[in-house]
Task: structure prediction
Amino acid sequence: MRAAGHNPRLDQLLAMRTFARVAELGSFTRAADDLGLARSAVSQLVRQLENKLGGQLLNRTTRKVSLTAEGEDYLARCQRIFAELAAADDLVARSRLRPQGRLRVDVPTAFGRHLLMPALPDFMRRYPDIQVDVRFNDRVIDLVREGVDLALRVGRIRQTTLAVRRVSNTRLVTCASPKYLAQASWPRRPEDLLRHRCVSFVHSDTGRSAEWSFARDGKRRRLRVPSVLAFNTAEAPVAAALSGLGITQTSDALVASYLRDGRLQMVLEDWIAEGPPISIVFAHGGRTSAKVRVFADFMANLMRGWRDQHQLPP
Result:
């Protein structure tokens, strides 16, 4: 990128943050709404920054905005600068202030309703200067694009740009209500499920029912069972099983209390497979924020307490 003349009227940090938001959202209009600026002001800031640098950072068409090769390099450096600034600010704030500010959190619906909601009053009492926006969501989101500080994720994390903190493992258990099992033969091997009424989870992104997983003698196998019912939330198949509508397979974290009190019974106990891990993921530089750090610790402790209470796997 070639050198250019200095513009004394340009607030470069503001221009850098504006450029980064346009690049992350792929739109001048969305960036303007997010930053609370006029679209003309956003366009002018990016244009002034490009003039100062002497190169084009963004490709603009009537349909979309995309990064140039130079823009990609510059965005990466901007993000590192923002992370360092956040860390510096946080270092000072931690020495004299409690964690504070608005925190945006994304969690799976079942976790949010059954674990997070009952525990939130305690967190809010401990950290009264934090305002928490919680989203219940069963799809994988782009944390940066949607302005989320941290999220609880179930399964493998494919986004290499995110910081990951694993908090729990799970097992996949197959279960049904005593009412259903009283009128149906108990399955002894996975293939027996093909003759049962099965209730499945449907992936929202593919529209396909999840395969059921089994493991025995160190060997793992998958089976696609015919479903009489399928839902796109993890809670619904459990509710259907509790109602006696069929057999379901789900994470032990969702059914531990029902297995303990007898409302559900486990079948194929010799075929239990390891389930997806549960992790906390952070947006770029988010781990350095005091409010993010204390909420991540809170969620991790919540998961550990729930696992220990119900004798879930370590």
